[in-house]
Amino acid sequence: MFGFVTASYKELNKQQQTRYNAVYCGICRQIRIRASQSARLALSYDMAFLALLLMSLYEPEETAGNRACSLHPIRPKSWVDNKYIQYAADMNVALAYYKAQDDWQDDKALTARMKSGLFGKNYKEIAARYPRQCKAVADCIHRINLLEKENCPNPDLPAGLFGELMGELLVCQEDMWAPTLRQMGMALGRFIYLADAAVDYRRDKRKGKYNPYLAMGTGEDWPRWEEYLVLAMGRCTAEFEKLPLVQDKPILDNILYSGVWGNFRRKKKEGRDGNDGPL
Known about the structure:
Blueprint: H1 14-34, H2 46-58, E1 63-67, E2 77-81, H3 83-107, H4 110-120, H5 123-129, H6 131-149, H7 156-170, H8 178-199, H9 201-207, H10 212-216, H11 222-240, H12 249-272
Antiparallel strand pairs: 1-2
Helix pairs in contact: 1-2, 1-3, 2-3, 2-12, 3-4, 3-6, 5-6, 6-7, 7-8, 8-11, 8-12
C-alpha cells in the first residue's frame, strides 16, 4: 500500500539527493542492527519521509558514516543516524509484519507466512518500545479487514482507518506538535489508501478482490477519485505548513507537492495498461 510518499528524485539537486539517500541508507542500516539482515527486504523509501519530517521538526544530533554493505559491497554508501532514523526503522518492520499477516489471511500464500515469521521475530521488542503506535497499526488493520470482508461500499470508512493508523505513526512522542502531526498523518493516510484503491481498481476487478470503488458499483470514475485525492493532500499540506520546518524542508516539499503526484500518475498508467506494478 506504500510507494506513494517518495521524492521526485530528478527534481532534487545533488546535495538533496545525497541527503535523501543517506537517510534511506541510515534506516536500512538500523533495520539490520535492530532487527535482522533479512528484514531489510521490507525497506521502503516512504519511511525516509517519516524520518526526514521528524528530523526537520526536532533537529536531533546526528552521527554519520560511509561504508559498503552486503547490499552494496563495492561502492561505499553514506548514512546518517539519530533517534528518528531508528524510529522509522522500527515502524518499517512493524508495518511489514502486519502487511505479511494481512497477506497471509487474504491469500494464504506461503511467502506471506514466511515474511510474517521473519518480521515477527523482532515485533515484540518494537511493540514494547512503541505500544501506542503498534496497537494503532494492529487495531486499524483489523478493522479495515472487517470492512473489506463486508464489501464496504463507502471508501471513507477504510480510508479513515488507514488515516488513523498513519496519524499515530507520525506522532513519535506526545508533545505540542502531536495534534498537528496526527492531523497531517490522518490526511496522508487517506490519500495513500484512496490512491492505492484507484490504481488497483482494474487489477482488483480482474482478481475478484475487494476495492472500495468496486464496492460502490459506479464503475471507473477517475475525475471523482482524483478530487478525493486533491482534498486529502490539501488537508495534509495545510497541517504540514503549520510545522516550523527548516532543515530538509525542500526535500519534504518535493515529496508532498510533487513526488506523491508523480508516483500516482505512474501507478495509474501501470494500472490502466494492465501492469500490476510494484505495489
